Amino acid sequence: MALPYMSMKCILLFCVMALATALLDPCPEPESLRPCGCDFTGINCVKVKNISQLEAAFSGTKKTMHKALWIQGVPVDAINADTFGEFVFGKAYIEVCNLTSFQLSALNNSAEYLSELSLFGNKLTSVDYKRIAVFQKLRLLNLAQNNIDHIPAFAFKNPSLQTLLLNTNPISSIGAFAFRNLPSLKQIELRSIRVKRLAAYSFTIPRHNPLLQIILSAGQIESIDEKAFYKVAPLTLRLTMNKLEEFSGPVFKPLMEAMTLNAKRINKLGQAKIETRGNRFTCRGCSFSWLTTLQGRPDLYLMLFDFQCSDRTSVWNVTNSLIGCPRGGQ
């Protein structure tokens, strides 16, 4: 008798988890790892006082694999290539350590296994983008709250990456195709950054998860190039609390059409949205006239559910008379 699909799925998941567990090594002798500790969840180094203690803890010559590594809130300003010795981790959280230097080669032994890497809350000014591409199974990368000021062109090339967090960095520019090679991307967050103009192709992502969310809220965005969102179709684009005064048809109408097609394909029509509250849309001049043409397209209109002019006029009430364009720009 054939097993139901869900039963087969559960059995397969159990087998995968069992295999992953079987690959893990037992904890090293406590004395050899001190001041770090180890249990079935992984290795925790929150009691480390300096880099020398950290390197001593991982000085063993035997290659051992562990679920995760936690180094959080300790006074370590640099991670060198040999800091973790022969140790292998499935996840690594090196957070709030005032790191100014992190050599990704320190995790070379983990390249085939690492699924999550968080360098949250440090003082990194840049990362080795070529080296990040080595981690082909990486699903989550958290670089939030560092001192990164620029994302270069073609920066990320990780086929499995689903979540990329770059919040609260002083990022002032994003290069063309920076996120192009992230075909599994489901969520990218760049809250509270300093970009004033989104450049052409900065968010071009031809292949991505259909549930993609692009979060660009609480920033300083003043303008957007017509090609900034070329060949991307997120389910959600959040531009709330920026400094936009224009809402350009050449920027947003093609994007909205693409988002609608994507939503239809995944049976989520009506859920696609562009969030814009807290901007400074003037709603003056014929450049806003295209909004009045959306009245016969509820699928597009509903995307702009929270759009408001600076005088709090909602998108539903934008007219050519209101914007001072009596002939609709013709």
From TrEMBL:
It comes from the Eukaryota. Gene3D superfamilies: Ribonuclease Inhibitor. Residues 1-22 form the signal peptide. Pfam families: LRR_8. Keywords: Leucine-rich repeat, Repeat, Signal. The keyword Kinase does not apply. InterPro entries: Leu-rich_rpt, Leu-rich_rpt_typical-subtyp, LRR_dom_sf. The keyword Repeat applies. PANTHER family: IG(IMMUNOGLOBULIN) AND LRR(LEUCINE RICH REPEAT) DOMAINS, LEUCINE RICH REPEAT CONTAINING 53. This is Putative membrane glycoprotein lig-1.
